[in-house]
Amino acid sequence: MAFGVDNERQRLAKYYASLSDGELEQLADDADSLTASAREAFENELDRRELNDFLSRPVEQRSRLDMRALVTIRQFRDLPEALLAKGMLESSGITCSLANENLVRLDWFISNFIGGVKLQVAPEDAALAMSVLNQPVPENFEVEGVGNFEQPRCPACRSLDIAFEELNKPVAYATAYFGVPIPLSERTWKCFTCGHRWEEEPG
Questions:
Q1: What does DSSP assign to residue 31?
Q2: 79: helix, strand or coil
């Protein structure tokens, strides 16, 4: 187990060392959502570059939400999927935020390690937000950062109620230990209507 932890720390240290000062500054906004080992590696890199002030500065307000009082209602491995859910909430008048968004934009593989992109809302909006996300998905809609999105359908029953399969944490940590992404059927879909699973065609 200690060997795995050491590998994890080395990989994180190497990753943070490869980032520019500007990228580290961006990541400082999401530092509170890092795991303990990721946070330690991040702070070590800031200390090495004498950039500790990145963490002491107030985070720029991206919304009116009190960032300390947010609750996570969904986690997504892929940023486009998180942006779709965020767009659905915002179009319903619910203020929300994506934690870890900057981290995943810079390195998709780190998403597996940190638990994905977290969709967060104020506690009093959580029930309503979940009901919005559980509604039938429209066939087409506009989403910031994605553009016009046409929702895929289940090839078996043509339902729109589909999603990517979740990547479990043990598998995510195992891939981090090896230091390279391992093929994990990352484009596998599941239909919640009929239970059918299928692989998305490349391209």
A1: G
A2: helix
